[in-house]
Sequence to fold (269 residues):
Amino acid sequence: MVVGTIKTLIIGASGMLGFDLCKVFPTSVKLTHKELDIINRDQVMNSIQRIKPNLVINAAAYTDVEGCENKQELALQVNAYGPGYIAEACNKISATLVHFSTDYVFDGVDSEYIESATPNPINVYGQSKFLGEQEIAEKMDNYRIIRISWLFGIHGKNFVETMLKLSGKMAEVRVVNDQFGKPTYTVDLAHKIAEIIKLDPGIYHLTNEGICSWYEFASAFISNAVPCKSEDFPRKAKRPKYSVLVNTKTGSMKHWKEALKDYLREKNL
Fold:
């Protein structure tokens, strides 16, 4: 597949990841949530069959982990059934599908997870995303499911932006030091897609390199972070202690500390 000659459709084009995907694929057809609601099967089928793309990149998702606990049906509609409709439409026109899943499909009991590890989500968000993976695999063969973690980018709300705001308002910012993962910069992830679509269909883990806790991540860009435990911030949705994704199938991306420098430079900080 020659990337420069394929017709690409980006779904969820106005989101944090979608925005950077649009810059990497500037000639793509770009659809926002207002233009395509993926929980509407007829709309999905009609839009994809009308556009007839060779490649569909789905960056649409309901990513509010706490919100998913309170709106479980919406989480299933957006994160599970919607991707299934997209896969069904892609299969009808023989298009390749790239879909983004999450580290939260795992329970966090093990210290790291390769692509073939068995999912066991412990919250509604993770359950809905895992169901989305299954829906896609049932309805087509030519897919690339990319599991990502701790996403940050300048075009949407994210952990880095939140911590920077809190740091300017508070003397101390308490951040959990007992959840571990790999931060992932949307720009680096978006640039990796052209490589992934040339590889075999299947599941991929893509993150920036380097493991850290949320506290260690925050401490890299604010000076007043203070470590605390997860139980100090009780939440409805359980979080996996270790959601470390290991990439065994493709070249690695830069360390998250270098990616963070790029992000701060992009924000002119």
Residues 3-266 form a domain with the Rossmann fold fold (CATH 3.40.50.720). The mean pLDDT is 96. DSSP finds nine helices and twelve strands in the chain.
